[in-house]
Every structure is written in C-alpha cells, then in structure tokens.
C-alpha cells in the first residue's frame, strides 16, 4: 500500500527530511506524498522512515493505492535510474 498524510499533520517538516525518494512535499495545507515516488522506503530501509519519525502519527497506509513489496522494489529501481 502507498502511504498518505492525514489532516493530523502539523507541518513539522520531519518527514520531508527523512524521505530518501523526495516523495513528500508541502500541499495547500499539509504535506502530501507523491505515490509515484513513494516506495515506503523499500530499497533504502526496513521500515517507512516518515512513519517512524512522525510525532503525531499522521502517516497511514492509503487504502486506495495498493502495492506489494515487489512493485515497490520495481519503483525503487526505476527511481534509481532517474
């Protein structure tokens, strides 16, 4: 599953600094995760770093975008080629 940031976001910037794929950017009111760039840290770390560091637990799985580990690995490899 892809990740998304909920309205609980306090815009503390911590997640942005931790994302190895530059998938997180400031939206109109809160930060947003670009599902085309988010690999849930597959290829970089064992766990999603943004989820680990979020002080208000505002980053959750997005039920509308389902991805398995194999797809996330392919996305990671594609991003590495860019």
TrEMBL record:
<keyword id="KW-0479">Metal-binding</keyword>
<keyword id="KW-0813">Transport</keyword>
<feature type="domain" description="4Fe-4S ferredoxin-type">
    <location>
        <begin position="29"/>
        <end position="64"/>
    </location>
</feature>
<protein>
    <recommendedName>
        <fullName>4Fe-4S ferredoxin-type domain-containing protein</fullName>
    </recommendedName>
</protein>
<dbReference type="InterPro" id="IPR047927">
    <property type="entry name" value="YfhL-like"/>
</dbReference>
<dbReference type="Pfam" id="PF12838">
    <property type="entry name" value="Fer4_7"/>
</dbReference>
<keyword id="KW-0408">Iron</keyword>
<keyword id="KW-0004">4Fe-4S</keyword>
<dbReference type="InterPro" id="IPR050157">
    <property type="entry name" value="PSI_iron-sulfur_center"/>
</dbReference>
<keyword id="KW-0411">Iron-sulfur</keyword>
<keyword id="KW-0249">Electron transport</keyword>
<dbReference type="GO" id="GO:0051539">
    <property type="term" value="F:4 iron, 4 sulfur cluster binding"/>
</dbReference>
<dbReference type="GO" id="GO:0005737">
    <property type="term" value="C:cytoplasm"/>
</dbReference>
<dbReference type="InterPro" id="IPR017896">
    <property type="entry name" value="4Fe4S_Fe-S-bd"/>
</dbReference>
<dbReference type="GO" id="GO:0046872">
    <property type="term" value="F:metal ion binding"/>
</dbReference>
<dbReference type="InterPro" id="IPR017900">
    <property type="entry name" value="4Fe4S_Fe_S_CS"/>
</dbReference>
<feature type="domain" description="4Fe-4S ferredoxin-type">
    <location>
        <begin position="1"/>
        <end position="28"/>
    </location>
</feature>
